[in-house]
């Protein structure tokens, strides 16, 4: 704005000086002396006017150059602003991506830590059980040695062979018992990963039961009246498997299994005669090598092998159901259904004494 005003002022000054010089030149060109008009010689323009005009032209050119530089500076500033905005957006996206990756890595690390802690707990429990098994084996060996001393009348070879057979059978029996032992801690820590491969013919499927199981998986719960699937399993497998002459104890055992409070273990006496007891469930006088209790500090009830197998089959079913409910069984619905059928078959076999 100031540049334009300066140019206009200088143009008006030059025009005024030009008019004045033209008038002076006309007056000087014609003069009357004694009635005669005379024409003087032309006078040159002042050198100051030429200098001022040249200065004006130079100022105009400078102003044009400055306008060009200002326009170029504006363009550079706009380009710089756009680059800064793009760089800021890129940095923000990179920071957001880094934060998301850090959160994902932290989540994976926490999950691995949780799995590692569960594995450590399971190994500790297994180590404890192995130590207990070793102590029991030592006790059996000591019993065998004492029997050797008491049976000196028998030949040495027969004593050794019978002792060896007894030790081997005892070891096999303890291993089987440990595999089927159920306690409150075992029910909570076992089956962290379950192999649900079965030998069932997958081409033959009860579609009604499969649909009931699929609907139960949407809202899994434990209880005979919680769903059609659980009602069917209770009525067809669980209740028949736990039906004993002692109905009151049978009902309390089922309640303890549902609340994951049942504990079952082996209970060996020194002689077979000492193991001959009345089974708390069947009421028969038989060899009761097992005992069961319904709470942490409850009373122990001696039971026979048949009763123990039936209780263990029901415990296996509820253990798998709890792990499905907790989301620990990573497989599709069909494979989980096949495992359910296998467990129901085990309950049927245990009920028949097979």
From TrEMBL:
UniProt KW Coiled coil keyword: yes
Any one biological process term the GO annotation gives: exocytosis
InterPro entries reported for this sequence: RAB3IL/RAB3IP/Sec2 (IPR040351), Sec2_N (IPR009449)
Record's keyword terms, sorted: Coiled coil
Gene Ontology CC: Golgi to plasma membrane transport vesicle
Coiled coil: 56-126
Keyword Coiled coil assigned: yes
Similarity section: Belongs to the SEC2 family.
Descriptive protein name: GDP/GTP exchange factor Sec2 N-terminal domain-containing protein
Naturally occurring in which organism (per UniProt): Rotaria sordida
């Amino acid at each position: 704005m100031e540049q334009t005003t300066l140019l206009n002022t200088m143009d008006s000054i030059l025009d005024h000086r030009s008019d004045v010089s033209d008038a002076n030149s006309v007056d000087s060109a014609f003069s009357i002396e004694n009635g005669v008009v005379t024409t003087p010689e032309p006078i040159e323009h002042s050198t100051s006017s030429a200098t001022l005009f040249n200065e004006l032209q130079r100022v105009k050119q400078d102003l044009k150059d400055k306008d060009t530089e200002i326009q170029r500076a504006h363009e550079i500033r706009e380009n710089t602003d756009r680059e800064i905005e793009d760089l800021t957006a890129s940095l923000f996206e990179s920071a957001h991506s880094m934060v998301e990756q850090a959160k994902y890595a932290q989540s994976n690390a926490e999950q691995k830590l949780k799995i590692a802690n569960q594995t450590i707990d399971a190994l500790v429990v297994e180590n404890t059980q192995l130590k207990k098994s070793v102590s029991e084996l030592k006790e059996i060996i000591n019993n065998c040695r004492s029997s050797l001393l008491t049976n000196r009348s028998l030949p040495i070879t027969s004593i050794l062979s019978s002792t060896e057979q007894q030790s081997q059978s005892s070891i096999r029996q303890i291993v089987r018992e440990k595999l089927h032992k159920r306690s409150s801690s075992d029910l909570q820590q076992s089956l962290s990963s379950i192999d649900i491969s079965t030998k069932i013919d997958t081409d033959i499927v009860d579609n009604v039961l499969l649909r009931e199981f699929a609907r139960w998986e949407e809202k899994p719960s434990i209880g005979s009246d919680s769903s059609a699937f659980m009602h069917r399993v209770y009525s067809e497998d669980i209740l028949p498997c736990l039906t004993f002459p002692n109905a009151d104890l049978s009902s309390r055992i089922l309640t303890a299994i549902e609340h994951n409070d049942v504990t079952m273990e082996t209970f060996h006496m020194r002689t077979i005669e000492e193991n001959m007891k009345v089974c708390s469930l069947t009421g028969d006088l038989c060899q009761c090598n097992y005992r069961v209790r319904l709470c942490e500090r409850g009373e122990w009830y001696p039971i026979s092998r048949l009763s123990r197998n039936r209780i263990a089959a029901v415990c296996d079913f509820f253990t798998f159901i709890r792990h499905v409910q907790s989301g620990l069984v990573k497989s599709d619905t069909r494979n989980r259904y096949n495992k359910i059928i296998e467990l129901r078959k085990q309950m049927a076999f245990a009920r028949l004494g097979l």
